Automatic annotation (TrEMBL):
Record organism: Dyadobacter luticola
Domain SusD-like N-terminal, first and last residues per copy: 94-235
The protein's name: RagB/SusD family nutrient uptake outer membrane protein
Coiled coil: none
Cellular component, GO, one term: cell outer membrane
UniProt family annotation: Belongs to the SusD family.
UniProt key word Transferase: no
Keywords: Cell outer membrane, Membrane, Signal
Compartments reported by the entry: Cell outer membrane
Range of residues in the leader sequence: 1-23
The keyword Membrane appears for this protein: yes
Boundaries of every RagB/SusD domain copy: 424-575
Primary subcellular site in the record, as a coarse category: membrane
SUPFAM superfamilies linked to this entry: TPR-like
Amino acid sequence: MKRTQISKYITRFAACALLSVTAGCTNLDEVLYDRITSGNFLQTRDDVTRDFLRAFEHSYWSIQGGSTFMLQENSSDEMMTVNRQGDWFDGGQYQRVHYHTWTPQDSYTSDAWNALYGGVTLATNSLEDLQGITDPSKFEMSREELDGMIAELKVLRAWLNLRLLDFYRNIVIVTKVKGQTEGGAQATPQEAFSFIEQELKEALPKLSTNTTLGDNAVGRWTQGGAAALLVRLYLNAKVYTGTDRFADCATLAQEIIDGKYGAYALESRWDAPFDYTNPTSKETMFGFPGSFAQTHWQYDGGMYFWMLPNMAPSYFGFTDFGNANPKYAMQPGRDVDSVEYNFALGKPFIKFQKYKDDVRLKKYKNLGGSKREGMFLYGYLPYINPAGKVDSVRGFKGPYALFLRDQVGRFLDAKPGTKIADKVSTMNNADNNSGLYPVKYPYYPSDDPNKISSAYAEVRFAEIFYALAECRYRAGNKAAAATLLNAVRKRNYPAGSASLYKADGSQLTDQEMLDEWMREFLAEGRRRTDLIRWGVFNSGTWWDKKPDADNHTEIFPIGQNVLNASPQLKQNPGY
């Protein structure tokens, strides 16, 4: 098996891992062995491949597992989990995320730590196994192939560590797990930053490029993917260490665009980076492969499937997963009387409406033949019910048809445009009409062969353009920033649209840059990080959210459950 065939194993392995979680084990006969080490555990090339892949499946799960997605989105001005007539109150935990009043006793502060360190531990264990191989030819592989696997695991671990640094700042650097009985001491943010940077730089030349791997690149960390992680690291360096690295970020981003680390290209359609063809897309710099029959974590309840109103699957014609549960929706741009709020942050749908010819503004609709249009669910959602009659999507708190609004309140069966007496619009006063829903990854009908077949695009080439644009903007070159942003934005508007930025970049401001990050990367699990980098996460005002008393909530507390198990750890400041 060649290195380019490993991606075929990634999908197969993901299916087996998912099956082991859902189906369990039926043979419980106990078999005892004296000791298993890398010396006798790895017998064949396939053993090495399986060992290599184990951390990837857990890491795919971690994009939403352990509340990681929820913490990134619900703490920001983008998404919300409101109390829908008693649904999703859950002891007020999501309200504490929205208001930045979380405590170490909230389970999600431990869950995210454990989820990410679970990946770090698995990656490190496999690294120790592979680094212990002294004769690769025993496994029918070359030293170059083995070094490539080791490099990919280091990049995977760096990706997990980067997210830990972003969440908690004062983290533990794990480089050995075999034979360890207790955790290590915390590193400073600068030490963690330097470790991640060093691992990525050392791994990069040993990785393949997407050009070499071709259509087998999905699920593989390539030179381009590793370089993109360095771009993320440098873009946020001032937040993490107090020293900005925007110049380094710009240099590396330009090298990626120029093709130094592989051949990448932007898609011409806005939806193509999220469609079933994205495993072979030149815009996908790193993606976790998914399919209906195997693993598809982005369609899990922790992420996009619960970013839908209750009966939305009937509207899609996709009924394999049953009904949805509206955990996430976009925060509103208007009050209950449909008056736009006057704060600058948040209001995601209104930020899209600023450019009225944006093709993404169309209501999501499946067109047949594995095609769709539009990115949002709003208004009434019609479908054909089991009786063969035209019906409309309803909620589970009343028999009336839902009319989805860019508002939050108790609208119940009120018709569009009707004034309601209850003027309260808060996290604790919503119904199933409240909020609009983005649909980035398609839900094709149940009889469509490409339903739920998209990879999760963790790193997109568009991100490199936006990162470089931000660096140019911060350096005072608005014209260059506008050119870079328009290179991506032009696919969102008709040819010749006046919605593209003027060539001199005169329309760009700090707020517009932050708004444009929201428009392009809506609900992709990065909004909190962007708000912090622009200095408004703690000081900003958005829907039902006042500024924090101070900035200690830029990082999360280390959960009390983690501290109880690891007494050597020190709690983050302010908690």
